[in-house]
């Protein structure tokens, strides 16, 4: 009995210490989470002249939605902008609007179909009977080498064909390949070709736009898995830049539901911002010290809340998103 009585204070002390450690852990995570969305953007680091040349930014998929708003926000903050798209008329329209809004800035157009990345023998069964025009990344690089390119935003992405939600076994071979090219192969090749130029013009930034579909949303297998791989690629290349001591920030920004984009024009809300709000939120995360973030705070709260639920409840929530 005396032994038990002597152990009680030790047991209480141990419980108290565990309580302190657990509380400290959750408090630290809460503060760390809040700090991410309170830190000011460091986008201004990349607005600098190199050999008297002004700073340029390249936005892929810049003719509509978030990409169009990225172009507008960057021009407003002092960057000259290259607008990429596959439709020359749409690019010209966007650039015309930008020139009217920002007459002091310069703008260029880059035409390339991000779905048409050369990929060995895939989907070339009838290549002899089709006029195949694959993306020429060497030409893209040569068209940008005269610029002080300091920012690359890999925004181009999406599901190339309708319907967007479809079981994998029902998805045509061509759509699978096009989706992977658009959301993974194209941005990977752009990074591969342009990082040497960005290093030369450093400090520089690469921002890759991901998706919260990487939580595992059913019926989006090619798209969601490509976006998951893109965020993994972002983390890997960010580490390569740090190991090599290159002043090139590699930032992956995951995006949830957004309106004022090609696939929806619903009224904006707290959990479904418009494309302009989303573009601003993404740029606000620049210089946050992480390689992979959720760009918009309410989206981050949604994603984080899944981790607080029991596994079975989180699974139900994710499945409901797919059938809503």
Quick recap:
The chain has helices spanning 2-38, 65-76, 88-101, 137-144, 173-200, 221-243, 275-284, 297-308, 311-323, and strands at 55-59, 80-85, 107-111, 148-154, 204-211, 248-255, 292-294.
Q: SSE layout and pairings?
A:
Layout: H1 2-38, E1 55-59, H2 65-76, E2 80-85, H3 88-101, E3 107-111, H4 137-144, E4 148-154, H5 173-200, E5 204-211, H6 221-243, E6 248-255, H7 275-284, E7 292-294, H8 297-308, H9 311-323
Parallel strand pairs: 1-2, 1-4, 2-3, 4-5, 5-6, 6-7
Family: Belongs to the short-chain dehydrogenases/reductases (SDR) family.
InterPro entries: NAD(P)-bd_dom_sf, SDR_fam, VLCFA-Steroid_DH
Organism: Apiospora aurea
Explain how this protein is built:
There is one protein chain. This protein has 324 residues and is α/β, with parallel strands linked by helices. The radius of gyration is 23 Å and the shape is globular. It starts with a helix and ends with a helix. It has helices at 2-38, 65-76, 88-101, 137-144, 173-200, 221-243, 275-284, 297-308, 311-323, and strands at residues 55-59, 80-85, 107-111, 148-154, 204-211, 248-255, 292-294. Strands 3-2-1-4-5-6-7 form a seven-stranded parallel sheet, sandwiched between helices. It is built from nine helices and seven strands.
Features:
324 residues, alpha/beta, Rossmann fold, seven-stranded parallel β-sheet, globular
């Amino acid at each position: 009995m005396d032994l038990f009585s002597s152990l009680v204070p030790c047991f209480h002390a141990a419980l108290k210490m565990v309580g302190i450690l657990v509380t400290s852990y959750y408090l630290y995570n809460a503060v760390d989470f809040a700090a991410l969305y309170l830190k000011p953007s460091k986008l201004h680091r990349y607005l600098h002249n190199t050999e008297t040349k002004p700073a340029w930014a390249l936005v892929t998929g810049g003719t509509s939605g978030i990409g169009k708003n990225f172009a507008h926000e960057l021009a407003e903050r002092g960057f000259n902008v290259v607008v990429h798209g596959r439709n020359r008329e749409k690019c010209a329209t966007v650039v015309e609007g930008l020139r009217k809004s920002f007459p002091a800035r310069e703008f260029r157009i880059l035409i390339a179909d991000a779905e048409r990345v050369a990929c060995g023998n895939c989907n070339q069964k009838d290549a002899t009977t089709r006029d195949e025009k694959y993306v020429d990344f060497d030409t893209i690089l040569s068209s940008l080498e005269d610029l002080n390119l300091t920012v690359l935003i890999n925004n181009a992405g999406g599901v190339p064909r309708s319907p967007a939600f479809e079981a994998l076994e029902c998805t045509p071979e061509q759509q699978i390949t096009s989706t992977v090219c658009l959301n993974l192969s194209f941005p990977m090749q752009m990074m591969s070709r342009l990082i040497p130029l960005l290093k030369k013009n450093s400090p520089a930034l690469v921002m890759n736009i991901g998706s919260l579909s990487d939580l595992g949303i059913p019926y989006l297998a090619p798209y969601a898995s490509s976006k998951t791989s893109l965020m993994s690629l972002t983390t890997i290349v960010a580490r390569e830049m740090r190991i090599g001591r290159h002043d090139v920030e590699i930032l992956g920004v995951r995006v949830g539901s957004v309106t004022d984009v090609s696939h929806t024009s619903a009224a904006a809300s707290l959990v479904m911002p418009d494309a302009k709000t989303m573009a601003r939120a993404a740029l606000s995360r620049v210089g946050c010290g992480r390689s992979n973030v959720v760009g918009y705070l309410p989206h981050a709260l949604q994603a984080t809340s899944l981790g607080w639920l029991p596994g079975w409840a989180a699974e139900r929530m994710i499945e409901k998103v797919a059938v809503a």
